[in-house]
Predict the 3D structure of the following.
Amino acid sequence: MQTPWRSPTRSTVAVNGRLPEHEAFRRRELRFHRYAYWFVNGVHVSIRLGKDDKLCLLVVIGVREDGTKELLAVEDGYRESTDSWSAVMRDLKARGANEPVLVLGDGALGTWAALRDVFPAARRQACWVHAIANVLDCLPKRLQPRAQTMLHEIMEAPTRADAALALERLRDELEAKDPKAIAKLDRDWKHLTAFYDFPAEHWRHLQTSNVIESSFATVKLRTRVTKGAGSKTAALAMAYKLLDAAQERWRRFNDHHLVADGLAGARFKDGIRVTDDDNDDNEMTDEKVAA
């Protein structure tokens, strides 16, 4: 039976101000599992700390080879800066975390700059929920329902080519009315469509960072109703405890055996695994075209 969460007290907080279990979490070895996907996000949570009344939580969730989601990091950062994210990623690497195949996040620039520095081969997938919200924010309310429908058609397209065609339909309808909305999609298109190079069974998981967003909602609610954490360290400990409890409810990846395939280097096109026979057929087609 899980022990109910209680606010940290002097008797439960370690010498450096952290909960003992949080300190153990921050120091544990990560070399015993391999992680194919990461979900990363930073959210500012309001707490009562006098002048410094914002806690920026930097959270990393990994997907293990068996498809299980695991909380890897909960740290405080300075406005999701590159330095803050680099520190988190370097620490994970030092404790044995492998380079992920794909990292999903909401698009904060500091996150991606740190990823390029620490794990340069990892690919990036932008969150479609954030992308859709950003486009709709550019449009007048009368255009938003139609635009939202078309944006979901893009996100749910069965192939990358179909998604591109759906984008052009949206462009034809909206670009003259608000070119900034389409420009947002054009800018991030490569990262919005990276999921097509991974198993179709995983697309639902890889299109949004909802696993973090829903967990953060619990943290935000708790920090709003409490009288105040009193310190950044105590608030961080509370966030860790709530997220640690939340991971018991996180859904395992569909067709989880495909996670291991991705780690082993299997390649996918539009969600379907590419075999050596497919490569041979493509090469023969290219030769015929050249002839």
In short: The radius of gyration is 21 Å. The domain at 20-127+208-255 is CATH 3.30.420.10 (Nucleotidyltransferase; domain 5). Strands lie at 35-46, 54-64, 69-76, 102-105, 123-126, 267-269, 272-274.
